[in-house]
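seq as requested:
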Amino acid sequence: MKRLIPVILLLTLLFCCAACAGNAKQEEISSGENSAFESDIKNNGEDLSEILVAYFSATGTTKVLAEYAADILNADIYEIVPQDPYTDEDLAYYTGGRADQEQKNPSARPAISGSVKDMSQYDTVLIGYPIWHSQAPKIIYTFLESYDFSGKTILPFCTSHSSGIGSSASDLHPLASGANWLDGKRFAGGTSKEEIESWLNENNIKPNETTVAAEIGKFDFEKKTVLLNSGYEMPIMGLGTYSLSDEECYNSVTALLESGGRLIDTAYMYGNEAAVGRAVRDSDVPREDIFVITKIYPGEQFADPEKAIQDALDKLGIGYIDMMLLHYPGENDVKAYLAMEKFVEDGKIHSIGLSNWYVEELEEFLPQVHITPALVQNEIHPYYQENDVIPYIQNLGIVVQGWYPFGGRGHTSELLGDSVIADIAKAHGVTSAQVILRWDLQKGVVVIPGSINPDHIKENLDLFGFELTDAEIRQINGLDRHEKHDWY
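struct tokens:
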């Protein structure tokens, strides 16, 4: 599917210019009933990751940060599980309990349930642990003495309410004296994924290129995300806010987040960026779990893109923009895109892309920019399917997103009432809207339907309890009229 030249360009740009945050292959080797349990870590039968995140977490705090690191690095993850689990009584400080006794005993080595079968495959190992009496738990000593770390890079990190990593890390060095130990860091509970990512970048720990390249653009229907060529994950379904007023937008975004949706599409021209930002800030959902797309518009914004981008950041007020697009081709579009690239370098925008760009426009535009777009967003629905454009874009390693999935204003009723779609919906016990959105997903197209109805918003996220057959996909493909419903 992928053409050689675009893929080489994509990989070069991905690992030299773009932010580094990946979709982790978090296939944990966890404890089984047998303490001698061993398991291979595999990445869908492909080359194994060169990075391992190993962690011990007694209360769950360290686990969260380890999962962040593994996700960012597309690394394997291994939980160090004690053969004899710690109880609350064991962990009570200054009571003479088990943890107190182990930390006072230089020779204590708690047994581990399970093991990493082939440590030799890893070049870099992150080791996470909580601080116990200013030191690493002795089970970390057991782990380090169980393998040969010669020539490997080890980056430790710890979780603590107040104590720094201090000598807890340097005391571990003799246990793996042949390793290249990097300076560790202490994190408090509640540390964000962005902070972990920044720390990894500071230490020049990058995702495994082979594994990341294989996963770019691939829909993960279990996680309901897709890995972008920028290294970030994006939800594959969400909410479009075109034509929504301030109050309508706030309520719709709130309904989306309450229903489990995490992808929101807005734009300068929609006039509702501030409402989106307010809804995100008012939500209980962690900021790093929400993906916000906005766009800058031709004309004044393309002429002064730095101001336009900063205005969007200020209106949203959510710290950073997950994805910014050029709304459609126009004068100064290359200038505007290059300005977005600078904001990517500064970390204020994570991913950038284009809206309403087709084959000819892309062929002219791409040689003039440095960062390959992560996303192209176009009008796509059963009456206007872009069956030649979609694979062209995807073969460049760019994800495709469809707006107007239900045909757009004035056409929705006809499309949802189409007898072919209605019959398929009846066969699956779902709505016509769900059939259309599922059709998009199975074509590898991210969907952002708009709605102000909380029930419809929730329904538009419920796309994973059924699957269209190849025959049904062909039936819907047969509805293509090449009928565009907007001028973009």
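Residues 4-16 form the longest helix (13 residues).
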